[in-house]
Design goal:
Elements (H helix, E strand, L loop, with lengths): L5 E4 L4 E4 L5 E4 L5 E7 L2 E6 L2 E6 L2 E4 L11 E6 L5 E5 L4 E4 L4 E3 L5 H6 L2 E6 L3 E6 L4 E5 L6 E3 L10 E6 L5 E5 L4
Length: about 180
């Protein structure tokens, strides 16, 4: 929800509910993997690339050619004007409004090997959820990794969603529990 607009992501369509009650249906001609609203802009990741929604159309995101052929699993705000882009097997990238650059972490090998699926950023930390081996939490610069998996008490290692609450506690949504 942003400025009276409600955005609803489905598997193959994006629905934009306008303040006047009109609904725009956007067909990206591919699968929608992730969406993000930041700075009153809607970003859409599809099987055909990364886009900015503007003027009732999807426009290829400037500087996103570094992600060609990648599957974007998640996008989350990193700071006031940039966001992180999580790819399934190619690591994490930072979009600063002009270009997409690799966001290097001390957990890159783990992230790439275990299929990154979810991402969350707090004031001080970044959490990366994988399909195969749980999650890893780093400081905001991607250093000092702490690994969380079945051996540390998770019910299973498939982390489908992550969220930091207002007290900086990390919540993990697993394919079989929380």
């Amino acid at each position: 929800y942003d400025d009276g607009f409600l955005y609803v992501q489905a598997h193959r369509h994006l629905f934009v509910f306008n303040p006047d009650g009109h609904v725009d249906v956007v067909d990206p001609a591919g699968i929608i993997y992730a969406t993000l609203v930041q700075d009153h802009c809607l970003y859409v990741s599809t099987s055909n690339g990364l886009y900015l929604y503007s003027g009732k159309r999807l426009h290829i995101l400037r500087g996103s050619s570094a992600l060609a052929g990648q599957t974007v699993a998640a996008m989350v705000p990193y700071d006031d004007h940039s966001f992180l882009i999580a790819t399934d097997f190619s690591g994490v990238f930072l979009y600063d409004g002009n270009s997409v650059t690799p966001f290097r972490t001390d957990a890159d090998a783990f992230i790439r090997r275990n299929q990154l699926y979810s991402l969350a950023v707090s004031e001080d930390y970044i959490a990366f959820g994988t399909v195969l081996q749980g999650a890893v939490v780093t400081d905001k610069k991607g250093r000092q990794p702490v690994f969380i998996g079945h051996e540390q008490g998770l019910q299973n290692n498939t982390v489908l969603s992550l969220n930091f609450d207002s007290d900086q506690n990390l919540w993990l949504g697993l394919d079989q529990g929380v």
